[in-house]
Specification:
The structure holds two protein chains of two kinds. By secondary structure, chain A is of the alpha+beta class. Chain A is 44% helix and 12% strand. Chain A has 17 helices and 14 strands. Chain A has a five-stranded antiparallel beta sheet with strand order 1-2-6-7-5, sandwiched between helices. Chain A has a five-stranded antiparallel beta sheet with strand order 8-9-11-12-10, with helices on both faces. The longest helix of chain A has 39 residues, at 439-477. Helix content of chain B is 73%, strand content 1%. Chain B has a two-stranded antiparallel ribbon. In chain B, helix 1 (9-36) runs parallel beside helix 8, helix 2 packs parallel to helix 13 and helix 4 crosses helix 11. The radius of gyration of chain B is 20 Å and the shape is globular. Classes of the chains: A alpha+beta, B mainly alpha.
């Protein structure tokens, strides 16, 4: 332990060497005191080596300039984040073999070496200079290659990053039949490039920051200037600035740290891995947050009705979309209330069922030993277990689980007389219904189903409706970055109803959503309704 | 100002409609028919016309004292101590309506759906949800109502149209068989309910455009009168004058629906309408009481009063009548005259006269 605390060698211009998150935090608070390189390459190297002590993936390569062996050079980079061929070919080879001796009658000396190397030596397209140790360290860690030159207190930072990454694939969470299939990957730069490819406009701004005192994760805030409400961007950025956390491994961290209502089960920030969804949101005047290391991108503000909307809705014809959206509203309501409605009717309001149905229900339930609430509750929990198992299980055993699950829930439970067949129907219908809606909405609904079932079991239909009333009141009180969560229905915003439960054709949706796109409401020209041009006389 | 939120004109219209229709639809058709028989719809139209002066006085008084509710501007009209007394009476009136409402709410559910559950359970549930809503402010109530009112109206339209096979327009004949006096008598019950528009005075200061108050009140009354008249016509064409003997004619209307033996037993729809509408109405009055009390006591925040007021409402709602018949009797025979003569029409009219004579208020000229 003593060695750990022992002070390493210190270069002349450096006051003290400390590493670890706490000290780095102190440095960021006092940028004026940030450490600078010295002109002595050995002390610089020692200093950096002390910082990267025990970091086996950081490579130090020292060598001499070919034409003037007095000048010592050093390359520092992180193995695995850089392109090794380029380092060998474009830096090492160039500097040790190919650099010209004399340029414009000037020879390489210690004094002009840096300039010489930058201008004539390096065959790299992106090179920048820096004197700050902090910047150099972060450059090395983010995959850039740093070149130190003896006698100069400036380092050359070469951008030849390259690392292993997943190929762009189909979206796993939101699949479509018609429309783009690509989804985001884990690399931030690739993700921003996908957005840029969709919106080729200098007004698409992608502002970078770093978050996470230890992890130093890159975060990009994307928006379209001129469409977005600038206050929204300021608000998003100020919420991000308040975050002090050790690491950000997924955008989910940010979602919980910046959402409006900390205790609400409803998410007021949308997340997606589809570039087209993000691009559409940006065009409507929303803000997106991209986090390095995750394909999940956050967009905000988010309203509740988006739960029943999918990107495909805008690609498929509008009549079909409208019908499907109404179907999804039905599914949303069913997945929330179907089990509780079943419990309420069976235990309190039999008179609501037509007599033949009532008789067959009674016959089914004759052999069942539990009250309907217990029965439905157990089946719901059984289903949740199967669903969870379906996500966590190792792929090869998937088949086994689905067969066992189908047997238990479908056949055996009914035949053994543990549950009525009707309960199985209700539970499976509920489950299917919950898959038709947007995932982050459906997990909330899944959660809220259980309190509703308890209410329905204790107060019948009255309890059910009261429960829904509480949910509606709660949602009416939510805001997502200033936008009421239940808009455009509560409050009613007439223009936005065009894209809510139904979707009118594109030629009629000529305004952006009122609450987000107020800044620049016109989305398209009016009178776009297609019609055949009149025959010329 | 105590309430930070603002509501827009459409939300105000929606609130006014729910505030009146929610309970009127249940018991009032029977009260009207009791006097006017098959001419009940004429009484309803008459009531809508008669309520216009009430609305006008309410809005006029508010416009004299912009940004103030009745509890606050009383002081400018009458001076400090008389204002405290009248203000207290107004608060008492709101408490009275609200606890009656809660009682009606519970009575209906117990009578029609859950006879074995104690009344107080339903009262506790609705007051608790109301308190939760009030904690979040007027805006949230207005938004919730924007979701609920369309559902309520849709359900009513659905019930009325599904019962069409049982309807016979001849049951409206002969027109004007009842004397004008009877029609007038029949219009008093709806008038008392429509007159609840005078409570609008408590939220006029929180409108985004207070200058539109008269338009809002007028449109609200127009729509309420229209909906209620249709409702009365729908019920009378189904049952004829025997509606007078029913407690909840709309529920009976629902029970006659039987289409192809599949669409029948629509009672849960009426229950949903009642629970949602009743909730909004009770919460609205609850809110008005909480806000008014805070203004009467000159507090800087109204939310701390939510719980105490809720407990008072709960206790009063249980004590206000011994049983359903007593509360219906009170509503039909005492409430109607008491409401119209004093707080809906009488006191505001006197206040307006005093204000004009004493030249109080901002834009009197």
């Amino acid at each position: 332990m003593a060695a750990f605390f022992k002070k390493p060698l210190r270069p002349r211009r450096v006051n003290s060497i400390k590493n670890g998150p706490y000290q780095e935090k102190k440095q960021t608070h006092h940028p004026s005191q940030s450490l600078l390189l010295s002109t002595d390459i050995d002390s610089n190297l020692n200093y950096l080596k002390a910082i990267f002590q025990d970091c086996s993936d950081v490579i130090f390569r020292e060598f001499l300039l070919a034409q003037n062996e007095q000048i010592k050079l050093a390359l520092i980079y992180t193995d695995g984040l850089t392109d090794k061929t380029q380092i060998s070919e474009q830096i090492m080879r160039a500097l040790t073999l190919e650099i010209p001796m004399v340029v414009h009658g000037e020879e390489i000396t210690r004094a002009n070496a840096l300039h010489f190397i930058k201008m004539k030596g390096l065959c790299i397209n992106q090179v920048r200079e820096s004197q700050k140790i902090e910047e150099i360290v972060s450059a090395i860690l983010s995959g850039e290659t740093v070149l130190l030159v003896d006698g100069h207190s400036t380092a050359l930072i070469n951008d030849i990053r390259s690392w292993e990454m997943r190929a762009i694939e189909d979206s796993k969470t939101e699949t479509v039949v018609r429309g783009p299939r690509e989804s985001f990957v884990e690399t931030l730069r690739t993700n921003t490039s996908m957005l840029r490819r969709k919106i080729k406009n200098p007004n698409l701004k992608i502002e970078m920051t770093k978050l996470g005192e230890v992890s130093k994760t890159d975060i990009a805030v994307a928006y379209i200037k001129g469409i977005v409400n600038q206050d929204l961007v300021t608000e998003v950025k100020s919420r991000l600035e308040k975050i002090k956390i050790d690491g950000i491994l997924d955008s989910g961290y940010l979602e919980e740290l910046i959402k409006d209502n900390a205790y609400s089960p409803f998410s007021t920030i949308s997340h997606t891995d589809r570039p087209d969804r993000v691009a559409a949101n940006l065009l409507e005047g929303r803000v997106a947050i991209l986090v390095d290391g995750t394909p999940v991108v956050l967009t905000m503000p988010y309203i509740f009705l988006e739960t029943i909307q999918t990107p495909e809705d805008y690609y498929e014809q509008s009549f079909f979309t409208s019908v499907i959206r109404i179907l999804r509203i039905g599914s949303l309501i069913a997945s929330l209330t179907l089990p509780s409605l079943y419990i309420a009717i069976i235990s309190f309001h039999h008179e609501m069922l037509p007599t033949p149905l009532l008789l067959s229900m009674a016959a089914q339930r004759e052999a069942v030993p539990f009250p309907v609430f217990v029965e439905a509750f157990l089946m719901e929990i059984a289903f949740e277990i199967i669903r969870e198992a379906g996500i966590r299980l190792p792929r090869p055993v998937g088949q086994a689980v689905s067969i066992v699950a189908a047997l238990i829930i479908g056949e055996a439970a009914v035949q053994a007389g543990l549950v009525a067949a009707a309960t199985v129907i209700v539970v499976s219908l509920t489950a299917m219904a919950s898959f038709t809606i947007y995932y982050s909405g459906s997990i909330t609904i899944r959660l809220l189903r259980f309190p509703l079932m308890i209410l329905a079991a204790s107060l019948g239909l009255f309890g059910l409706i009261s429960g829904i009333t509480i949910f509606v009141v709660h949602m009416a009180g939510l805001r997502s970055f200033g936008v009421p969560y239940l808009a455009p229905v509560g409050p009613i915003i007439t223009g936005d109803l065009k894209d809510s439960v139904v979707r009118v054709p594109w030629w009629a949706m000529n305004k952006r959503p009122y609450l987000m796109g107020q800044n620049n409401p016109q989305r398209e020209a009016s009178r776009l309704k297609p019609q055949p041009s009149r025959p010329k006389k | 100002m105590l309430e930070k939120g603002k509501i827009d004109s459409r939300q105000a219209v929606f609130l006014n409609i729910t505030m009146i229709i929610a309970t009127a639809l249940l018991v009032v058709p029977a009260m009207t028919t009791a006097h006017a028989n098959q001419d009940a719809w004429l009484s309803s139209v008459l009531a809508a016309l008669l309520v216009l002066p009430i609305a006008w006085i309410t809005v006029k008084l508010s416009s004299l004292f912009p940004g103030k509710t009745i509890i606050e501007y009383l002081e400018e009209i009458l001076g400090r101590w008389p204002a405290k007394v009248i203000g207290f009476l107004y608060l008492f009136w709101f408490v009275h309506i609200c606890s009656l409402m809660i009682r009606e709410y519970g009575d209906f559910i117990v009578t029609a759906f859950m006879p074995e559950t104690p009344l107080i359970v339903f009262h506790i549930v609705v007051v608790t949800i109301g308190a939760y809503t009030i904690k979040q402010g007027l805006e949230v109530l207005a938004r919730t109502n924007q979701i609920f009112l369309p559902l309520i109206l849709f359900s009513l339209v659905m019930i009325m149209s599904l019962a069409t096979p049982e309807k016979d327009l001849n049951r409206l004949l002969p027109v004007l068989e009842a004397s004008c006096v009877d029609i007038f008598k029949g219009s008093l019950a709806p008038l008392a309910w429509f007159g609840e528009i005078s409570t609008f005075t408590m939220i006029i200061p929180f409108l985004k455009k207070p200058t539109e108050a008269w338009r809002i009140a007028f449109i609200s009354i127009l729509l309420v009168g229209f909906i209620f008249t249709l409702l009365v016509i729908g019920i009378v064409t189904t049952f004829g004058p025997s509606v007078a003997a029913m407690t909840y004619p709309v529920l009976n209307e629902t029970r006659v629906i039987n289409i192809a033996k599949v669409i029948e037993r629509m009672d849960p729809v009426i229950m949903s309408v009642w629970v949602m509408g009743g909730f909004v109405k009770i919460t609205f009055f609850y809110y008005v009481i909480v806000l008014g009390s805070a203004q009467w006591l000159k507090l800087s925040e109204y939310r701390p009063l939510t719980m105490p007021v809720g407990i008072i409402l709960l206790a009063l709602s249980m004590a206000i009548a011994d049983n359903l018949l007593e509360s219906i009797h009170f509503l039909a025979n005492v409430w109607v005259f008491y409401a119209i003569s004093t707080f809906e029409l009488g006191i505001p009219l006197v206040l307006l006269i005093i204000a004009v004579i004493r030249g109080r208020g901002g834009n009197n000229n």
